[in-house]
Amino acid sequence: MDFTLSDEEQAISDLTAQILGDKSTHERLSDLAANDDRIDAEAWAALAQAGVLGAAVPESYGGLGLGFLATAMAIQQVGATASPVPLLSTAVMGAMPIAEFGSAEQRARYLPAIADGSLIVAAALYEEGTTAAEPEVVAVPDPDGYRIEGAKPMVADALDAGLILVPAKLRDGSCGVFLVPADTAGISTIRVEVTTGRPQARLEFSGVVVPEDALLAGPASAVSGAEIVDWIELRVNCCLCMMMAGAAQTSIELAAQYTKQRYQFDRPIATFQAVSNRAGDSYIDTNAIVLTAWQAAWRIDQGLEAQDAVSVARWWAAEGGFRVVHAAVHVHGGVGVDRDYPLHRFFLLARQLELTLGNGEEHLATLGRAIAAR
């Protein structure tokens, strides 16, 4: 792996860090939470103006035409600030698959609006008891195209999205991926509270009729809907690891600052052996999360096989992230759970990411099966 970022990738990372550092301050995020504002609209507009939202959008549609790694680096900064901006859902679950698999008409309709920040996208991938590529939500033929029926129980950013990406089972049992405007008749949106305090939504589809051209890539495409879903999930899982990397980095920085300033027995607690040992373990875990996430993102960006790298990154993010944020809270004592102090926000974000990424043993099992198959 080449750890050197291109000038454009470094600029996207630096711009995102500067914008979110200036806009999504602890005070600002506290005000947003108090007012139940789900998105930092000022930060989102600034990211659009700086070109971050359009990093993955081709230049012909108003974007920068950069690769996956640039957006992944920006998402790491989202984790480092715990900023409530829908960059993961809009850029990775929306712009990237539309740019990769969408028709010319779909690209022209949606990509410029994503790049300028006026369109937020949510992806309704998850269903209970099945995989995203084998949905139970159905799309049956209708005189006007397709009629979608069923429910998606947990959809991030759906409360604010203008477009929903919906995998659904077609009549022949295969998976189709639909681009459904959020205001389409028949969609019910039910708020669902989650760990971070930033709600998701349950989407219920009852007689939702969409035209045939809402099917991503079209019915005659050589790429199946299941392949599109797998393509999206690989990149989403990698970006969840990148977000965890940012959250872990900020957590350990807050712990380092606090333990140098907090005195007991006339000396900073950072000099106590137990505290320094936990800090050292957290430093190792954080670097492992960062490096494995970067490796996975780089392999995806280069078009290399990345499934194993993503599984490794997911294990480190889930297991290491848990240890890092718990150690940070522990060395802070009661301050660590005080909502007037920023650490609680990264603890909750890391716990939500851990739950989303799944159990570490699952990732080890996935790696084991891959190794056995070879």
Separation of the first and last Cα atoms: 22 Å
- The global form is globular
Mean pLDDT metric: 93
Please give the share of residues in helix.
Answer: 40-55%
Biggest beta-sheet profile: 4 strands, antiparallel
Rg of Cα set:
21 Å
What is the tally of helical segments? 11
Uncertain segments: none
The ordered H/E elements are: HHHHHHEEEEEEEHEEHHHH
Tally of DSSP β-strands: 9
Strand order of the largest sheet: 2-3-7-6
SS-based structural class? alpha+beta
Strand content: 5-15%
Descriptive notes:
The protein has 374 residues and is α+β, with helices and mostly antiparallel strands. Helices cover 53% and strands 14% of the residues. The chain is built from 11 helices and 9 strands. The chain has helices at residues 7-23, 26-34, 41-50, 68-81, 87-101, 104-115, 225-261, 273-301, 307-332, 343-357, 360-373; strands at 121-123, 138-142, 145-155, 163-169, 175-181, 187-192, 200-210, 263-264, 267-268. The chain has a 4-stranded antiparallel sheet with strand order 2-3-7-6, with no helix packed on it. The protein has a 3-stranded mixed sheet with strand order 1-4-5. Strands 8-9 form a two-stranded antiparallel sheet. Strand 2 (138-142) and strand 3 (145-155) form a beta hairpin. Helix 1 (7-23) packs antiparallel against helix 3 (41-50). The longest helix has 37 residues, at 225-261. It is globular and about 80 Å long. The two termini are 22 Å apart. 48% of the residues are buried. The model has no long low-confidence stretch (mean pLDDT 93).
